[in-house]
Structure formats: C-alpha cells, structure tokens
Design a protein that fits this description.
This protein has 496 residues and is mainly α. The chain contains 24 helices and 5 strands. The protein folds into 3 domains: 155 residues, Nucleotidyltransferase, domain 5, CATH 3.30.420; 118 residues, Helix Hairpins, CATH 1.10.287.4070; 123 residues, Nop domain (Serum Albumin, Chain A, Domain 1, Orthogonal Bundle), CATH 1.10.246. Helix 6 links the parallel strand 4 and strand 5. Helix 14 packs across helix 16. It is extended, with a radius of gyration of 41 Å.
C-alpha cells in the first residue's frame, strides 16, 4: 500500500485540504477516465474533504496571496497544516506550486509532491470546489477571486520598485515616436507649401523654423517689409531673413487658394506644437534621469541612458549586466548572426551614438567602446545601489574616458582607476558636508513654531499675616543641637 496523499488547494476564500482515495495514477492519465472524473458524483469517490480554513477578511486574503506568489508560507497556513495533517505516519502533500512546496518542506518538514497527476487533481478540485465544500455557496469563489485580483494588482503597482524607471521608459518611447512623426509631418509641410514657395526649403533647412516661416509668410505675393522683424526673430540671421523675403517676391511657385492656405497653416501649426511637446519631453526626461540615474546620465548622456534602461527593462536589470553585455546591448541580432556565420561579432550596440565613440577614430572605436562599457557598468551600479543621488562619479568617469581617448591617439599618461575613484569619493564627501550645512542653515533660518498660549491660572497670594509653622521634627532637632552645645561648653570649662 502506498503513502497516504493529501491535496492542498488554494482558493480566493481560503485554504482547502483534501484526502485522496485509492486511485491508480496511471488510470487518471487516460482521456476517457479524465472525462468521467468531470462528473461530480464520481469525483466525490476520489477525494474527501479534510478541512477548510477561510480567510477572515480581504486584507488577510491579500497577505496570503502575496506570500504564495513569493513562494513563502504564512503563519496561518503553517498552523492550518500542522493542526489538520496527521502527526505521524507516512503521507505526502500534493501542491500546485513548486516554490510553495519547497517552502512547506523546508519550514514544516512535510514531504510535498508536484506531478502531472497532482496538477490534474487540482484542476478537477478547482472545477468542483464550491460543491465539495459545504461552507461555500455558488458564485462565492468567482466574486472573491475578482476582488482579490484587483487588490493584488493594486498592491503590485503601488509597491513596484521600478516605477521610476518605467517613467523613463515611457518618456524615451514617446520622444522617439515624436521625433519620427515630426520628421514625417515636416516633410509633408515642405512638399505641400513647396508648390507655393519652392525655394524656401533650400534657404531654411530646419523643420521648426520652416513651419514658423510658413505661418509668417502665408501668401508670398502679399508679404511686405513689415514681416522682416518676425522672420529675423525666427532665423536669427539678417542675411538669411532678407534672402527669405526677397525670394518670396521672385518665387516661381504657383498660387494657392485661401482654403488651401488655411489647411497648410493649420497643419504647420500642429507640427510646431509637436515640436514644443518634443522639447518638453526632453526636459522631462532630463529631470528624470537626473533623479534616477545621474552618474550614468553624466557619463553617457540622457538619451542613451534612457535607451539602455528601456532595453534592459529597469535600472536594476541594467546594473546586473556585465560590461561585455552592456557593450553590445541593442545589437543582439548582429551578434547571433555573426555567431551563426562564424564571423566578426559587433563591437557596440546602443552605445555607438555616445560622444566618446563619435569622437574616436576608426581604429580606436572598438577599444573605447569596451572601456566606455566598463565605466557605464560601474556608474549604473552606483546609481542603482547607492543611497545618495549625485553625479560626481559620472563626471569623473567621463573625464577618465576622455583621458583614455587622448592616450589612444596621443599616447598621454592615462589616469589610474584608484586615483579617479579616490578623487570622486573626496568630492562626494564634500558634497555631503555642504548639503548637511545647507539643511542646518535652513533649519536655523526657519521661524520657530508658535506655541499655543495657555490661559493663566489664578494663584492664591499668601496673606501677609500668615507665618509658617515649624514642624515638630524640626523643633526637636533644634533642642538637641542646643543640648550638645551646652555639654561641649561645660566640658571645656572643666578642662580649664
């Protein structure tokens, strides 16, 4: 006879413990047997309800579901199993999660099993649980499951440690989308307005300036000298402004109707607003990088830092990457294609657009990318695991990368890592002292908090005729003192 088997089933309303009857595991794998077990009457002969431990409230249920999702055993579950399972004898506990089974076996010493047969039994229990447990009514599990799912999702979003990183990921995504859309729409404005003033896009190449000039010039044949200050304010060059004004008068473009011009102006105005939104998004991204990852931002730049965090998923994931992975992050397709073809692997991924690689010459691009990835890995770990937000380390690492570029090209003496980090630590301590001094000065300059005025209590004034009465103990001490003095004087006279 095999070991006795119990089944632990977790529901949104509580824990349920079943005992399995004598069933052959081989037989349950057959399709026809599984179909027959769908019948409640037959399945009741297979399992027997041992006990049911309901949750006291929604907070209690959320606490237990959070623990189960992390593979932990709560005190409520541990006491339930210790009370309801046999004290001695050979038995096993079937669970639906390997992590929970390992935690139960480690904390309580109960043998747990996790097999396909157990999973099939758990599925059938889930199907019939409301009819197997008398304390449950139809629809209780679904209602409790819906409420618990909402509470669990809210708790996960609220306590997400990467929520600041998510803002960076969304900001860089919308910034890239805006840049792409602005280029597309600006090209459409140039093509549309080019029928009327085709020479303008050769004089003014910038998309933002072009859209603003479209709003100022409008009909080229109607433009006057009074528009020159407005044009000059956009292009910031007198010669270019005069060229735009003169070109409008001798342009070879065709005429546009009033309706066409209104549509072109509306579209150009929308593009200008998109450009303003892009600038605002860049400022927002810069502020978020300064608060989340200042050292990596000082070393790599805000946009590259945001792309690295977005590609890794979070700053924590990025900090866990070695420098070799960070170096080729974003070039995974080229890497696997090179490995498959046994060719040369890529030297850089997203870091290709950084200032250091752009500044390096062709033969030194691979060398400086490896060195830059090494320093970026250090900066990301300082940002992720450091308590104080500062960009001192990133600035010093940037100076070291710049010095290494000079070493590759001019053979100058490179900085040592220990010296660079020692200098950065020195500056960091100075920064901390200044911050502490500023906070202390702010506290001293702050006006003191006003205390609540208390109503004065009437104190009785002592009457002038009242005289304090001596206590009996004090009078006895005085008499004893006089007696001792007389005895002393009498003794002195006798000695004389």
């Amino acid at each position: 006879m095999g070991k006795q088997l119990f089944l632990l089933h977790e529901t949104s309303t509580g824990y349920v413990l079943f005992e399995r009857g004598e069933v052959q595991e081989v037989g349950t794998d057959a399709v026809d047997v599984q179909a027959s077990l769908q019948d409640l009457a037959r399945f009741k002969k297979t399992v027997t309800l041992k006990s049911f431990a309901p949750f006291s409230n929604s907070e209690h249920a959320l606490e237990n579901i959070n623990a189960l999702s992390e593979g932990q055993v709560t005190q409520f579950l541990a006491s339930f199993l210790q009370q309801k399972l046999p004290k001695g004898g050979k038995y096993e506990l079937g669970v639906s999660d390997v992590k929970v089974g390992s935690a139960i076996q480690e904390n309580l010493g109960i043998d747990c099993v996790f097999t396909e047969h157990i999973l099939e039994m758990q599925r059938l229990i889930r199907l019939h649980v409301e009819k197997l447990v008398p304390a449950m009514r139809a629809g209780d599990v679904a209602t409790a499951c819906r409420g618990l799912a909402h509470a669990y999702s809210r708790s996960k979003v609220k306590f997400n440690v990467n929520r600041a990183d998510n803002m960076i990921i969304q900001a860089i995504a919308i910034l890239d989308k805006l840049k792409k859309d602005i280029n597309t729409f600006a090209m459409r404005v140039k093509e549309w307005y080019g029928w009327h003033y085709p020479e303008l896009h050769k004089v003014v190449v910038d998309n933002e300036k072009y859209c603003k000039l479209v709003l100022i010039i409008q009909h080229k044949e109607k433009v006057k000298d009074e528009a020159l200050p407005a044009i000059l304010e956009v292009v910031n060059d007198e010669a270019v402004a005069q060229k735009v004004l003169d070109g409008a008068r001798v342009s070879m473009g065709g005429e546009l109707s009033e309706v066409d011009m209104v549509n072109i102006q509306t579209f150009a105005q929308r593009v200008s607003r998109l450009i303003e939104l892009r600038d605002q998004s860049q400022e927002y991204l810069q502020s978020k990088i300064g608060s989340v990852s200042p050292n990596l931002g000082a070393l790599m730049g805000d946009v590259i830092t945001a792309r690295l965090i977005s590609h890794a998923g979070s700053l924590t994931n990025l900090a866990k990457y070695p420098a070799s992975t960070l170096q080729i992050l974003g070039a995974e397709k080229a890497l696997f294609r090179a490995l498959k073809a046994r060719g040369n692997t890529p030297k850089y991924g997203l870091i290709f657009n950084t200032w250091a690689i752009s500044k390096a010459k062709g033969k030194n691009k691979g060398r400086i990318s490896r060195f830059l990835a090494n320093k970026a890995a250090i900066a990301s770990r300082i940002d992720c695991f450091g308590e104080d937000r500062t960009k001192v380390f990133g600035e010093k690492l940037r100076e070291q990368v710049d010095n290494r570029l000079d070493y590759y090209e001019n053979q100058t003496k490179p900085f040592k890592n220990a010296d660079v980090m020692a200098e950065a630590l020195k500056l960091f301590r100075k920064e901390l002292k200044k911050a502490a001094k500023r906070s202390k000065d702010a506290e001293e300059e702050a006006p003191p908090a006003k205390k609540a005025r208390k109503s004065p209590k009437a104190t009785p004034k002592p009457s002038p005729k009242a005289t304090p009465k001596a206590s009996p103990a004090a009078g006895a001490a005085v008499v004893e003192k006089k007696k001792k003095k007389k005895k002393k004087e009498k003794k002195e006279k006798e000695e004389e």
